[in-house]
Fold:
Amino acid sequence: MNNTVAMARRMGRVGALATCALFPSIAASADPAPTFERIDLALGAPEDHIVLAGRFRGGAMDDLAVVTVNEENQRELSIHSIAGEPGRRTWRLAHRQRLDEDVIFMDVVGLADGTERLLVGRRGRLSWLDAASGEHPFLDLPSIYNVAPLDEVPRVEVARDVTGDGLDDIALADFDGYWLVRQREDGSWHEPDKVAVTAGVSAGFAWSYRPRHAYPIDFNGDGRTDIAFWDRGELVVHLATDSGYADQPLVADLGLELEEDERIVSVVMGEDAEAEMLTFWGMEDYNGDGAPDIATQRVTSSGLLSKKTTYLVHFGTHEDGVTTFRPTPDASFVSDGIQAMDTIDVDGDGIQEFTIITVQVSVARIIAALITGSVPFDAEMYAFANGAYPEEPSFSRRFHFEFSLRTGSFSSPDATFADVTGDGIKDAVLINTDDGLLVHPGTGGATVIAEEGHEIEFATLHEAVALEERDFNDDGRDDLLIRTGFGQDPKGVTVLLSGE
Structure:
């Protein structure tokens, strides 16, 4: 992964990431500041690495599985466990082994008994890896993943809860659909089901196939979780049955004229002097009423540097065994520029908040960025209240992406939403490029996130580039997993355990 991809990940993974950066310099909160215990793991100078957390050894706390790749494309897996007393904890190496060069990807699957397994993906098969007993065959299935990439072992999230029962299933993309393997409550697995959908095509330095995004929804209101795909201009829905999925999918009537593909590259790049595209963006129960809703994206372009982006949300209603959508948008979010949007349920009420970041592009802004080494982004959050999303954002702030043309270095804040206080409401957590964290408590009210926050000092966190939340010790408070040294040496992993 390179710096460009890292920035794209921040833009696309969670608009919420940018929203956390809404509070760069605000008065401190009067509430007690959260505390953390820091545990560092040094990795040296690998060419690339991924970090996977889980109960791989059955202990009381999560382990870390680290896959590193050196300059000779040699892959190594190491598993580390937390050892020691509170306040003096360290990482202890529990297992180390070489990985074959035919390993294409890895992932983590959660089991019904609360433990987790490392999944290893190769051409035509999935296996699971146990530190004590080695690698075990799991599934022999063809997939879209057939070539091991050079210099990296990526994480591909094939394990996820597809059926909505709280258990991980397997959703493995193939060229003509998905293999879905459902987990039972006793930890055993159903036979694979195949749901049909075409693979997409991505154009970059080379043409490649990409899986369609799967949307788990209850489309017909029967309480089961169906699977929907946006496929070449149509919403294709596979209805769930007692034994799997219906033999024939149905094509939903959205009542909207949308483009055939969700990609908008030609408009964004200004290939058409005057162009407007309305595309499918996503599908979820945004307003928490039990029926799926859809979001679309309209991009208007009058050249490479003149853009306007609008996101439109259409609420859905269950009627006669299907979902119908209102033709008139129930919410719209608009700005001049290029936007990236995501959703997050901050307070756990089942209703999604929309988080949006926007960058405005013009000749003057490009010149200013080259002079100052700083690119401004506008970040906004829209919180559902009184039965609707507001026309004006609940929050609106500006933050900056810093770079140096002389050294090639960059500094972009990464952030997440995590319940570090244990009150059931997610807090906004931002890595402060001035060596530490900014934590802004969730309010559970209309303001969503408090403007007053806490500055927590941690040396060297300015080198951090990835921030994730996970409850390592099951105490009801999210902990923080941070990758450091990205794009420079030495590299490492820092875990911050949330204290009482």
